[in-house]
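Hello,

Our lab assistant flagged a job as stuck in the queue for most of the afternoon. It eventually completed. Since we weren't sure the result was trustworthy after the delay, we are filing this so someone can double-check. Below is the sequence as submitted and the structure that was eventually returned. Let us know if re-running is recommended.
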Amino acid sequence: MDHNAFGDTPLSRCHFYRRVCDLPANVDPPHLGRIVMKAEHVWGVIMPASLGHAVKCHMQNRDSDIGPILSHPRSGRWTFLVRPDIPDDTRLFADMFRHNVSVVRTGGTVALPSPTDQCVEFRRWIEPPRCTFRPSGLVVIEAVRACSGQRRPMQPRATHV
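-- returned structure --
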């Protein structure tokens, strides 16, 4: 199907992302029509698709709003778009690294689905953005831990001398 015949162009899609969803999207490079979002007030939590599916189901089972999720089928990864409330904590990032989970923080880039993508093999929405809602990044991190059978790391206990 030719999306351009119906008025869905990279520029119109980018405007939708910016105006309706408050995603800081740009067409880059213009001749390819790729849409990217610079992480600022929206971050991404990227994980293997199988874990992403489990996290999505876990959040839905807990009646949590899941917000936008996109798939990168060729790499087998999902990206949850989240609020930027994940602390800069080395232990947290090491913990997520063990589960093949990464966080796209301020300054990073997330590629978004574009009508010029040749097919759904590049990028597609699992849950498309419909408004400005994004879940807390910490809620997604806790769902990752729950789905991987891991409890929140214990804080070291104070010892009394």
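-- support follow-up --
The delay was a queue issue, not a problem with the job. The result is valid. The two ends are 72 Å apart (CA to CA). Residues 1-6, 153-161 have pLDDT under 50 and may be disordered.
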